């Protein structure tokens, strides 16, 4: 547009010179037209610069929006995965309960019963678990850590370690969750939390990007603990990984 306007001016100027219009009035008129044209060119340039700036701002805003959307999708997928993990274990346990033949449970011998937890133990443990159930994972982790320090010999110790691991896991602190589950495997091999801890340890490895180690851990569960809910969950994890 600017080039056309300048070309028109030059053409007009040439035409005036060709017909011999050399009077001062006509020259003044041409100069005024040139001045007006320069003003229009300046305005057009300003409009173009404003338009370019606006387009750049819109592109930047669009990129920020896309980045936020990607983060939201990633968080949503992680939440869905946690829900799927929980649902798998619960469904598998429900299937075991339905399939199991109904028979009276054997009464455990008194010598095999774990020592009863003291009132203080129970209160401290239940308070921390209540925080966990409310979704206050950081607060629950603090309470469970204090509980384990104050009551290291409590019969609730393995449960406290498991909830401590879950509290870190649910905060995506997988490197902090893993040692809690490994302590259960090492210190409480006969605990009811042993196999669940073994599964969560494998999932921690996977979350940290340690895929070969995670695959090995999942296969150990499927090979050595067949028929358990954790083995079925581990197999589903391996299926998701293409194994």
Automatic annotation (TrEMBL):
**Keyword Endoplasmic reticulum on this protein?**
no
The stretches annotated as TPR repeats are: 158-191
Q: Region Disordered: which residues?
A: 49-69, 97-122
Q: What is this protein called?
A: Outer membrane lipoprotein BamD-like domain-containing protein
- Pfam families annotated for this entry? TPR_6 (PF13174), YfiO (PF13525)
Q: Where is the Outer membrane lipoprotein BamD-like domain?
A: 120-194
**Source species of the chain:** Mesoterricola silvestris
Instruction: Identify the keywords attached in UniProt to this record, alphabetized.
Output: Signal, TPR repeat
InterPro entries in the record, alphabetically? BamD-like, TPR-like_helical_dom_sf, TPR_rpt
Q: Does the keyword Cell inner membrane apply?
A: no
Please note every region of biased composition (Low complexity). 97-117
């Amino acid at each position: 547009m600017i080039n056309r306007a300048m070309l028109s001016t030059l053409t007009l100027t040439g035409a005036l010179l060709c017909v011999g219009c050399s009077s001062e009035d006509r020259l003044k008129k041409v100069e005024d037209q040139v001045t007006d044209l320069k003003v229009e060119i300046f305005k057009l340039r300003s409009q173009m610069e404003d338009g370019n700036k606006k387009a750049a701002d819109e592109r930047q805003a669009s990129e920020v929006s896309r980045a936020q959307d990607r983060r939201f999708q990633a968080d949503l997928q992680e939440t869905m995965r946690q829900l799927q993990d929980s649902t798998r274990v619960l469904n598998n346990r429900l299937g075991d309960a339905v399939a199991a033949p109904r028979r009276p449970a054997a009464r455990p011998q008194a010598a095999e019963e774990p020592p009863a937890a003291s009132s203080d133990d129970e209160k401290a443990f239940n308070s921390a678990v209540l925080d966990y159930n409310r979704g206050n994972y950081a607060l629950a982790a603090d309470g469970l850590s204090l509980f384990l320090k104050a009551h290291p010999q409590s019969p609730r110790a393995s449960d406290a370690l498991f909830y401590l691991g879950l509290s870190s896991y649910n905060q995506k602190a997988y490197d902090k969750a893993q040692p809690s589950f490994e302590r259960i495997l090492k210190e409480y091999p006969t605990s009811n939390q042993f196999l669940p801890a073994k599964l969560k340890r494998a999932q921690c490895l996977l979350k940290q990007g340690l895929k070969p180690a995670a695959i090995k851990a999942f296969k150990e569960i499927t090979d050595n603990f067949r028929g358990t809910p954790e083995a079925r969950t581990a197999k589903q994890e391996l299926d998701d990984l293409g194994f």
